[in-house]
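cache lookup: miss for this entity combination. No prior model stored, computing from scratch. Input as submitted by user K.M.:
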Amino acid sequence: MRASHSYRLSVLFVLAVVFVQHLCAQTANIYGVVVDSLTKQRIPFANVSVIGTNRGAASNNIGFYYIPKLAPGTYQIEARLMGYVSVMKKVSLNDDQALELNFELPATAIEIQEVLVNAPRKRLELEMSTSVHVVQKQELKSVPVAAQQDLLQSLKILPGIVSTSDVSSRFYVRGGAGDQNLFLFDGIRIYYPFHALGIFSTFNPNVVDNVEVYTGAFPPGLGGRLSSVVNVLTRDGRADKLTGSANINFLSTEVEIEGPVIGSSSLLVDARKSISSQTYSRIVGQNIPVSFYDATLKFSTQPGGVQKFDATFLSSGDRLQSSSPDQPDYSWRNNGFAVAGSTMPGEQLFLQWLVFGSAYYAERNAKTSKLISRASTSVKHYGLRTSATLYTGPEDLYYFGFEFGVPSLDYSYVNTLGMPQRLSTTFIEPLAWVRYMAKYEGLEFDGGLHIEVGSLMTGGNFADEVQPRLNVSGLLLGTWRAKVSFGRFTQRMLTVGNEDDVISIFDAWIKVPENIPPEQADHYVVGLSGNLSEQTSLNLEAYIKNFNSLVVFNRDKVDPTDPDYVQGTGKSSGVELMLRSKIDWIDLYLAYSLSWARVDNQGLMYYPRYDRRHHLNLMAVAQPAKGLSMSLRWEYGSGFPFSQTVGYFDQLTLGNALPGQFELENGSPYLMLGAKNAARLPAYHRLDANFACVFTLLGFDVSLGLDFLNLYDNKNFFYFDRKIGQSVNMLPFYPSASLTIKY
Amino acid sequence: MIGNETSGALRKAGVFTILIRALIIPVLVTVWIVACNNPFDPRAPLEQQLVVFSVLSTDRNVQFVRVNSNYMPTGFDPNTYDGDNAVRDVSVSITGDGKSLFFRDTTVARPDTSRYKLPLRIYTLGHFVPVGGKSYNLLVSSPSLGVASASVTVPSKSVIVLDPLSWPRMSDPISSRPDEVIQFNVDLSTIAKGYTYHMFICYDVLKNARWQEERFEVPLTPTDPDTTYSLDRPEYLQLTQSPQTSKVFVQFKVGYMQSIIKKLTKVQYVDTHLIYKWIVLVVLQADQNLFGYYKSLRTYQDPLSIRLDQPVYSKIDGGIGLVGAYSLDSLTFVLPENFNGNR
């Protein structure tokens, strides 16, 4: 019932605006695609501008641009992007003409520091938004990591993203839980994006073109999670010649082949496989016999015009096999596909469609373990997604679409009584969205509605299921821009686990229990960004995130008929600062977050274990000579919350049955904890270095990388075993190397 | 104008460059300072509090209260702690049903001395049977550790009725069909949060020229029905949540009674005298506190639970532990002298 009247009015308003815009008269339009002149790969986020006017557009994530409503006349159109030579074309436009104008940009050598600091390759709509980061492959590779480059590990340098350990890629965004992040890989939903218990991700940086990371108030079309969206977009294979590369590092070996196939099509195949679990065991300080593989295949074709079709396949698997019969074995598998297409079915309308499917399966084989039981979980999610961009005016457009998804969740386990249990759910998840983006002088508006149609039709709360998303920014002075955003989000799936576990090995997905409304959160963000100088940019954001509904443990559960979970609430807030600067040939990056997160479990207020008050990332990337790059990264994080041991008492067990004279028994020691998560662990800090050099040897392009993690060997606290009184630390000083040979 | 703007921007760039350069040194110093590793201990100083255990019961005329304090072992393994946790300056009283009574401090031998060697200190109250349906307030007062108190309401007496159709099956189970049911209708107290029941066959057996009284519990029908009525893996009822109607239909299969009688008569006591005396159904009703505590101890026996934490249930103000109550009622069915199996 919350403000449902105003939401209905909002829907009507948006529809009315769409209709009125359609009535407007049309003039000449220019559209086309921007591609790499050599490889024929589409170039996202290129700037296409009409020289001598203030008109222009940025190419979208598949290289398409559209400049509507130009007056008839002769123009010079320029396409430019850092790393490419600018190309200018002269065109004459007649009244009502729609001109297809494609650009082929020759590449220049991309220097890492330029990309890192200046990074103009961002979609126009992203620049005005809060809480969004576009990370490109060059940036991913400049972050020092253990053994091999990793996408999710690299994202941890972004403000608002917190990880609770070195040995896990799992992260927590702005006070949200670990299962509140949506991972998309070319549109494929990935439910377990981790390798090796989480230390690496299944996303191979070598096949990634760019990653959009939404840490809050994400736009219509993205939903189903409360905290973040990580949208990984892969690159196309080269369409000009057959090339290949091989990489070996301390952990895995990788082979990649790409090249043209039939006509204007290209193929990219990349496969990785672990070669030794010794490296991983050294990283985590324990013998953990883990092995993994992943493979990505992408077929792309551009049949002509602006049309493009892609087919992406992803397969990954992990296995942890213990030699001890008392230790369980684990296995994880991810398989997925996405078939996508884009075309222009009519004037001013650009259409994209996607058929996707993913299957995640994990199994825990308890073997003879008496402490851990057998369990398996699977998530299958198939769907169709269609979106359309309607270019209605010189400075405005509509983006709308729908998605029809069918997630199917299954969790089978054996309880300690030896009874097999199964939770199985399949439901239909239709979504629709409409988004309007407009510029008026210095003011930019991006707003719309994200509608959970399925839930709305089945009696969901209108105010929860019709979710407003709003992003407004205004130019203040010079380059300084003020931003404000709001978004409402719901989530219907969660992972089963103990939120206090140090590391979660087995993630089982279930649907939010029927007795609890879906998880729901509102994001409020304000921001300020601009250039402090020509070489220094700053982005400052403050946010409040109200978790109006969370699924939390039922602390008063006594009987099996009592629900395991009940409804809770939460709140997080914080301030984030991101500073980028360039001094001579050194690029500096600073990201600082000050944040608070609280969970309210039916009156019990506590800080979740991933609540980190201060988080600082400093990074410097230098390229002192051509082909040589170095980076230094220092991370500081204040301590995570934990519950202190405040004593023990001897708990009488009441024997096996009542009645009985249990007053005489000794009882068992019961650990008494203080106020939940009221104390703090020691702070975390670590200095890492990376050296990379690229040279030619015997006609091969050779790339050599050296990473040194935790240079001053800080004893970063991982966990403390209260029973034996021993603390276990995270990653010690750890050197690693990688070698890549390209032909 | 353009030239002025450019030079201004350059001047600006210079200022920020200098600022950033100036920041590098403090950052490095900060790194150096915070790089010091501090020892970590997850333990907070022990805040002693009263640990109270008492379960009032209607089946005895002596009630007990255990009063201890919590403790912190010097090491990290609590099982190595064997100190004296008894609180010596305690007065324990109970108020309810118009009375206020004090418990007496007593010492009894500890049955299990594997960990603690000292005798047990227990507070006892003799000649006191709590009354069903009445509320009692237990007060534990210690000058050194403060006051702990808890309220408990004793469940009222339950009403147990044997279904008339079950009478002949009780009198002569051997002649009945094994799949026939013996049923009791039980009206529980509305106060009771949980209940359990047990049915016993009671008999006298002659051992070494002396009659001895023994009993054998009749198991429940398992989830997967067993037509052989085997006694190898018997199942008994755990404490279970009371239904909202407070009415329970208690059922046992005759087949299990037959298996018990056959086992006793033909296997266990083949060459001796055996007289079956009666069959008794015992119904235990637990109050909210006892039921909650019992269940919290057995979280992992919840066959449906998917949660992984381990809760503790304690409703004592100023302390921790359990102050609960149960009532015990029974119905006895006297077996005929010519019971099939008597020897």
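stored under new cache key. Chain B touches chain A through 87 residues (CB under 8 Å).
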